[in-house]
Amino acid sequence: MSRLVHLGNAVVDLVLQVPAAPQRGGDVLARAASELVGGGFNVMAAAARQGLPVVYAGLHGAGPRGDQVRAALAAEGITVLQPELPGCDTGLVVVIVEEDGERSFITAPGAEARLDAAALARVELVAGDYLYLTGYSLAHASNRAALLDWLPGVGDGAVVFFDPGPLVSSLPAEALAAVLARADWVSANAAEAEALTGCADATASAIALRDRSRGGVVVRCGKDGCVVALPGSDPVPVPGVAAVVVDLNGAGDAHAGAFIAQLALGSTPLAAAAWANAAASIAVERQGPATAPTYEQVAQRLRRDGVSGFRSSMPGK
User: Fold this and answer.
1) CA distance 189 to 42
2) 0.90 exceeded by the pTM?
3) From CA 309, how far away is CA 260, in angstroms rounded?
C-alpha cells in the first residue's frame, strides 16, 4: 500500500511556559518546562496513527537528541531510513509559550539541516507513495540545494505534498516556485496561504495556489474547517468540527497527516478533508504538539456528527 515518505525535520522541542516573554537582558521564571520530539515528527505520528506506513527520510544526529528522536519514531512504528550522521546531534528548538498562547521559537539546527545528494540517493519512492516536503527544509541552504536538484527526478507515480509552514515569507521565491510547480497537493493555513498569494480570503488564496501548482490545495481555516480547491472545479468549503479548545499547537500537523492517510486509503479529497477537520478538532482538545488521534477516535467523532463518505476501517481490517 501507499506510504508517507517524510523529508522534513524531526527535532527536539524544549517548551517553556512563561507569564510573558522576558525583555531584552531580562529574566523570567517558567511555570513549566517539557522536552518533546516535534517538528516533522508531529505529521508523521498523525499519519501513522491513521494506519498509514510512514518512513522518515530526513537526517538525524548521533547524540542524545538523536536518540530521543529515534525512540519517538520507533514508538509510533515509523521506519527510519537514514543512518545516524556522525559528528553532530539533532537540532533543538526552544519554544516560549506565553500566558495568552502566543508562541516564539529559537532554533539551533543540527543534523536535520545537512541533507545532501548522498542522503537523497537512499530515498527510493514507489508508485503511490506520498512524499512530504516542508518549508522548513527549504530554509536550510544545504537541504534546499539538494532537494531542488533531486526533485525533478521524482517520478509522476509519487504524490508530492507540500506544506510551506510559517517560515514561508522568508523562503527564496525561486525555491518556492520550483516546489509548488511539482506539488500535487499544497496544504497551508490561512495566514501562510495569504503570505504566498497576497489574498486575504481563503477561497481566493486556494485558487491562486492551485494555479501555481499542478494539483489540489487545502487552505486550513481553524475552527471554520478548510477550503479545498481541485483542478477544473470551484473551491469547496469543508466545515469544521466543534471542539473545546485546549491547545492549538500541532492542529495543522494532525490535519495534514490525517488528510494524507485518507487519500492513501482511497477517500475522495472532500471526504479526506472532513476527516482531517475531525482529527484536528480532537488534537486541539489535548495539551501538547503531537496530539493527533487514532483512526478509530476520528471515526467515532464523525459518526457522532453524522458524517459519511470515508473509508470504514483501517487498512488490513
Assistant:
1) 16
2) yes
3) 16
Closest-CA residue to 133 (of 122, 143, 141): 143
Q: Which residues of 288-310 are buried (b: 16+ CB within 10 A; e: fewer)?
A: bbbbbbebeebbebbeeeebeeb
Judging by beta carbons within 10 Å of its beta carbon (0-12, 13-18, 19+), is residue 131 exposed, middle or buried?
buried
pLDDT single digits (tens) 140-159: 999 999 999 999 999 999 99
Domains and CATH numbers, the chain: 4-10+39-89+110-304 (3.40.1190.20)
Q: Which of 138, 139, 146, 142 is nearest to 122 (CA)?
A: 146
What is the CA 216 to chain-centroid distance, rounded? 16
Spell out, as residue ranges, where the chain has pLDDT lower than 50. 316-317
Three cell numbers, residue 251: 492542529
Tell me how far apart the alpha carbons of residues 226 and 243 are, in angstroms, rounded to a whole number: 15
Question: Which residue intervals of the chain are DSSP H helices?
Answer: 41-48, 64-75, 117-120, 135-138, 141-150, 173-182, 190-197, 202-212, 251-264, 269-283, 295-304
Phi/psi at 269 (5° precision): -55, -40
pLDDT in tens, 234-274: 999 999 999 888 777 789 999 999 999 999 999 999 999 99
- The backbone torsions φ and ψ at residue 254, rounded to the nearest 5 degrees and listed phi first, read -60, -40
